[in-house]
Design brief:
The complex is a heterodimer of chains A (about 450) and B (about 325). Chain A contains 14 helices and 15 strands. Chain A has helices at about 80-90, 105-110, 130-150, 165-180, 200-205, 225-240, 270-275, 330-335, 345-350, 355-360, 370-375, 380-425, 430-445, 445-450; strands at about 5, 10-15, 20, 30, 35-45, 55-60, 115-120, 155-160, 185-190, 220-225, 245-250, 260-265, 280-285, 295, 310-315. By secondary structure, chain A is an alpha/beta fold. With about 325 residues, chain B is mainly α. Chain B has one domain (about 1-315): Ammonium transporter fold, CATH 1.10.3430. The longest helix of chain B is centred in the first third of the chain and has 24 residues, at about 25-45. Classes of the chains: A alpha/beta (about 450), B mainly alpha (about 325).
């Protein structure tokens, strides 16, 4: 178990009350997102996870029962780094960009004097929860950015948005001017997909690449989603831990697409209802964007902190799979790839299961953004195959590693056996003992001995 | 996509037929029929869907480009053998569309060029009005195409004329100057009379493909740069012993190679840098073969030679992967 429940079934909880504490790294504190009674603690399916995950089920009770155990701290950015980080951990804040990695651990991974980058450049079409958050709560994002900057000891807090977000840009400018903090910098990047991908955004903003297999922290950059910054501000300025997030409910199959600030754990069906219900005949339910989203089995699943967008797509809306044609090496995928890979060569390597070639061609640097799929005139589904290629490579590397261990063990055994057989002739003690034995016998029975 | 390529080539085919007679159409028809037949058989043998693949249009494009390169007076079996080789061996034996190393149209053309050198000279003088020579009519051309024989009064030698590039080659070989060579009425303003118009229309078709985004500019720029660079350099050194850049550009298969052959994606590199190198190689090799080789035109050979270099070019020009050291 990655977390320890702090409540038992039957117990009543208030909204915002801590209900689970992490037991291992990589997991956050969990707070009750509504007030009510704990019904069950067990494994339940949630949106975006293939297998059921540990959940605490709460039945809604008194709406006004709010836990007030966290103090409001308007001067949070004056606190020590350690104090801020400790409280961010207590607030259960995780990366709301989708990774759900505890924010405190990301902050702890930073070296000295890093750069703080707040990512407001949403990656995919359809998703606009960050855009809406920037428009409506820009002052919270700026406030959260200032606290995160203090927690890092960063020189600057760069907030990145895209050129196609003018309203968000205006709101952000106003909020920055109101805050009068010269350390807040607004950077506007191209709206070309996948500019909002962490590595691509760092390259666009700082002109530097994150080394292959490394983390942004390796080049002194800590990247946080703008939603995460707002959650930090909510905690320090309103005493509210992470219990909600903004979710985009959209697609041709939704009557009135909109962004909703939703409590974590809300069933998707409730959010769809708030968005006017279904319209027409939705064919597919997707969590995330059209390029990298995950199909959802049904709308009874509850959202997690990673649920940035739910798309109810109508027939053909997401460019449903047409038949694949042969690759004619047109090179459009090479032009499209943000990681500068050669997808058409990778495709061949995946088909040949040539792991050495997969490694040379850099399959592990594929961010699976699907830009190549979109560019391909032959409708070849490339990114999915590269995902398989990564696993192929990982399996080979694992079995190579295991083979190395087995060989090392085998060689060690051989050495040991060789050492033992060498030791045999030198085993003079036994010879002497034998001689001594024979001598004794001779003494006892001289005739028989010869 | 393939349909647009076909449409872009049609005006040039019409202009070619205007200057060189109906043989252009006969060649095209024979090539397309044989190409589709060969492709159907190859697909059947390989156990692949026949009609779905035939309708991708790639075999038709290859056939039209191949036929466009052939002399207008050409017996059907020459066309057919080139097409069977191009589609059956060059394309399908290597795995079909997307897997062939060589451009099928050019490989087919080179096969018939080296196999039937005598039959590959059937270029009538262009019909530009001021040349006094006997032209084969529709019936005579068709008879030659089907039987390899002319009606009694005609012979191939009587009808055909040396192409512009042949004239340059022979003239320079006979130590004549370019000024003397150009006195021959087969020359036009830049290249050969007729030839330059055909090349104009091919270039226009190519321009349309560029504007429509069917092809990218890198390969054509490379070919033109390579050819013009070489031709310009030697022409500036001595314009009397080297054909002008204009003549090189508007003669033979220069424009076809630039816009329709070298841009075949399957047999070219995939990176922008790779395509510039590939194109430049074709342009330079074309000039080298035309000037110092034993064939008058060198586009087909240049393309095949650079096809061989594609894996190497791909290796050289592989982009530096994000986050990896150079």
């Amino acid at each position: 178990m990655s977390a320890q429940p702090l409540v038992v079934p039957g117990q009543s909880v208030r909204c915002g009350e801590p209900i689970a504490a992490p037991t291992t790294a990589g997991h956050p504190y969990i707070h009750a997102s509504i007030a009510g009674r704990v019904l069950d603690i067990g494994l339940y399916p949630i949106a975006g996870s293939r297998s059921p995950v540990p959940c605490i089920v709460i039945e809604r009770g008194d709406r006004d029962a709010v836990w007030d155990g966290y103090a409001v701290q308007p001067d949070a950015s004056l606190l020590s780094r350690g104090a801020i980080r400790q409280q961010i951990a207590a607030a259960g804040i995780v990366g709301l960009g989708g990774a759900l990695f505890p924010t405190v651990e990301k902050l702890d991974s930073a070296g000295e004097a890093p750069q703080l980058l707040l990512n407001g450049a949403e990656c995919e079409a359809y998703i606009c929860c960050d855009d809406m958050l920037l428009r409506e709560r820009a002052e919270r994002i700026v406030a959260g950015g200032r606290i995160l900057r203090a927690a890092l000891g960063a020189e600057l807090c760069v907030i990145a948005i895209k050129t196609d977000m003018p309203e968000a840009g205006m709101a952000l400018l106003e909020a920055r001017d109101a805050a009068a903090d010269p350390h807040i910098v607004i950077s506007t990047v191209t709206a070309k997909y996948p500019a909002g991908g962490e590595r691509q955004l760092i390259e666009l903003v700082f002109g530097r690449e994150v080394p292959a297999g490394g983390l942004p922290a390796d080049i002194g950059v800590i990247c946080q989603n703008v939603g995460t910054a707002a959650a930090v501000a909510d905690f320090f300025l309103a005493g509210r831990p992470l219990i909600s997030r903004v979710v985009t409910i959209t697609g041709g199959g939704i009557a009135r697409p909109r962004n909703i600030e939703a409590r974590i754990g809300t069933p998707i069906a409730d959010l769809v209802e708030l968005a006017g219900g279904y319209a027409g005949t939705p064919e597919r339910l997707v969590m995330g964007g059209p390029m990298m989203g995950i199909a959802l089995s049904d709308d009874s699943l509850p959202i997690s902190a990673a649920t940035n967008c739910v798309i109810a797509a109508t027939m053909g809306e997401l460019g449903e799979a047409s038949a694949e044609l042969p690759c004619i090496r047109c090179g459009l995928c090479v032009e499209a790839c943000p990681a500068a890979l050669m997808p058409q060569e990778l495709l061949k390597a995946v088909r040949d299961e040539n792991t050495a070639r997969l490694e040379t061609l850099g399959v592990s640097e594929c961010i699976e953004c699907g830009a190549c799929d979109y560019a391909c005139p032959s409708h070849i589904r490339l990114a999915g195959r590269f995902h398989a290629g990564k696993q192929m490579l990982a399996t080979t590397q694992l079995s190579r590693q295991q083979a190395n261990v087995a060989r090392a063990r085998f060689e060690a055994r051989n050495r040991r056996l060789a050492a033992e057989s060498h030791a045999q002739p030198e085993n003079a003690v036994d010879h002497e003992a034998l001689q001594a034995l024979l001598a004794r016998r001779r003494q006892r029975d001289p005739e028989k001995a010869d | 996509m393939m349909r647009i390529v076909i449409l872009a080539l049609l005006p040039a085919i019409a202009v070619s037929a205007w200057f060189y007679g109906p043989g252009v159409f006969f060649n095209t028809i024979v090539a397309v029929i044989v190409a589709l037949g060969t492709e159907a058989i190859a697909l059947r043998l390989r156990g692949k869907p026949v009609t779905a693949t035939l309708s991708d249009g790639s075999a038709i494009v290859a056939a039209m480009l191949f036929a466009f390169s052939l002399p207008p007076l050409c017996p059907w079996w020459v066309t057919a053998s080139g097409m069977v080789f191009a589609i059956g061996l060059v394309k399908h034996a290597y795995g079909g569309l997307g897997y062939n190393l060589f451009n099928p149209a050019m490989a087919g053309y080179v096969l018939v060029l080296v196999s039937f050198p005598d039959l590959m000279t059937g270029w009538p003088a262009p019909d530009i009005g001021d040349l006094d020579y006997q032209r084969p009519g529709f019936a005579a051309t068709l008879q030659y195409c089907l039987t390899g024989q002319f009606p009694d009064a005609l012979t191939l030698d009587a009808i055909t004329r040396a192409t512009t590039l042949d004239s340059v080659r022979e003239g320079l070989g006979a130590m004549r100057t370019m000024t003397e060579i150009r006195m021959n009425p087969v020359f036009g303003d830049f290249g050969g009379a007729g030839w330059e118009w055909v090349n104009n229309f091919v270039a226009m078709g190519g321009g349309a493909l560029l504007l429509l985004g069917i092809i990218r500019w890198h390969t054509p720029a490379g070919v033109l740069g390579g050819l013009l660079g070489m031709a310009g350099f030697f022409w500036i050194l001595d314009p009397e012993v080297s054909a002008s850049p204009g003549l090189h550009l508007f003669s033979g298969g220069a424009m076809l190679g630039t816009f329709f052959i070298a841009t075949d994606p399957v047999s070219s590199p995939t990176t922008a840098r790779g395509r510039l190198i590939y194109g430049a190689g074709i342009g330079m090799l074309t000039y080298i073969i035309r000037s110092w080789g034993s064939y008058a035109d060198g586009v087909a050979f240049a393309v095949l030679l650079m096809n061989m270099a594609v894996p190497l070019i791909e290796r050289w020009t592989r982009p530096r992967i994000y986050g990896r050291p150079a």
